[in-house]
Amino acid sequence: MQAIANAVILAWGWRRWLIALLAGALAALAQAPINAAPVLFVSLPVLVWLLDGAVAANSGGRIRRLRPAFAAGWWFGFGYFLAGLWWIGSAFLVEADVFAWMLPFAVVLVPAGLALFWGVAAMLARLFWSPGWPRILTLALALTALEWLRGHIFTGFPWNGLGYAFAITDATLQPAALVGAYGLGFAALVLFALPAAFWPRPAERGAATFAVVVLALAVAGGVWGAARLATASDASVPDVRLRLVQPAVPQTMKLDPQSAQDILDHLLALSAMPGTGADAGAPLGGATLVVWPETAVPFYLTESAGALTAIANLLPPGSALVTGAPRLDVVPIDGVRRAFNSLYVIDDLGRVVDAYDKEHLVPFGEYLPFEGLLDRVGLNAVTDLVGGFSAGHGRETLDVPGAPPFSPLICYEVIFPGAVVDRTERPGWIVNITNDAWFGITSGPHQHFTQARVRAVEEGLPVVRAANNGISGIVDAYGRVRASLALGPEGVVDGDLPAAIEPTPYARWGDLAMLPMLGIALILNLAGRLGVARRRAML
Q1: CA atoms 183, 186, 192, 195: torsion sign
Q2: 491-501, pLDDT tens digit by residue?
Q3: 142 pLDDT higher than 50
Q4: Which of 147, 204, 294, 366 is catalytic?
Q5: One of 396, 411, 458, 459 is an active-site residue; which one?
Q6: Which domains does the chain have, with CATH numbers?
Q7: 204 in active site
Q8: Nearest 5°: phi and psi at 183?
């Protein structure tokens, strides 16, 4: 290990950037569906050693001293996001004749942009770098700050934070209830970078104590998680029976206006499938609430009396449907009717009893940032390629007949920690509808489902997820999957609605819940730095 650490530290030029790139790509294996969290014990120490080498290259002015650190962080982040987000290219193959030319740019530019946060974090850590174990805390604090910024600036994109590596088991995921996904990311950085506390200076005083404390806290977190699950309630909401419909409609078919009626008929037929056991002969398989995916019907549902009548005919008395569908403004604004990506609650008479317009739109997918600027500089062709949805007005809690009020989340709105419920009106559960058919049979839908599970743990609320091609499932308030349908096949998921639990610390305080942990780490970092400085001064 000593030889490896020295080789990484001394590497320079293209070899250095290649090491960073490969180490970052290795770290991506900790994410779903591989969930190989132990690889981080290899990749994260390499990042620390790369920064050790950047500190050693201290000639020139301040900016020149920071460049090697920024480059190390950027190349590591680029490898991490390139290996973890390659699947976004699949969306450009749905209409390949129009969008295929954009695929290489998207697959490369998105990771390159996200890697900037890791580069800045590495540069910030370089400013406060010190020998020994405190440098691990320095890097963890800097990267946690920049990861939080990645999740918020420019509407945010907190996909594949390092904390999701703890989704390897239900027990190790439970600390998300205390500190959230960003707090888990900090813990992952400190824990998995531990080998760098011993190399390249195995005799550094305090390293063993630091490692023992970190490992003890990690074990304590796992034990607490296991104990929490051992005493967890398996209660369900009385008299609520769910049926989640996964139609697996190809995206090319959804984009064909001639297929609209066939898609609706397919959804109705799947919803009416016979149940099993005692519910074998009951309408809707005994379900009282049916959930269809995002944009399940590829037309303006409220403008189709025939579709609403067909839904009314499907639903037995006392039941309801939650479905995604596009929506047009009833009243034009400036002569233009705006379109929304919406969720509807429809009762057994075919009436819309509540609705929600997606607030957090996907940049370059559902809207084009800086569209006016691009038009002015003559890039009208680019702006014409991107479908234009308007954003809704914020988080809401919707009512649904026969079930507790719920928080609606459309597609990737579920990936934002602390932003999935209305804090003024806590719901009883979360409904996440999505259309991951854009990304085919890739790792993307698996990562999406994992993030939905973490939201359940953070909020202490069950998450019910209906996806066009998967993964659909019922997740309880502890992140445990009670029922699911794999990625790819069509079918239904039947099950009871898990009960909510009391608000977790994270549900009460949001990202502020991790500040005590970060504050203690900062104090330990400063104390460790002073101790190292005193010992070196005595030599």
Answers
A1: negative
A2: 999 999 999 99
A3: yes
A4: 294
A5: 411
A6: 2-230+510-538 (no CATH), 239-359+394-500 (3.60.110.10)
A7: no
A8: -65, -40
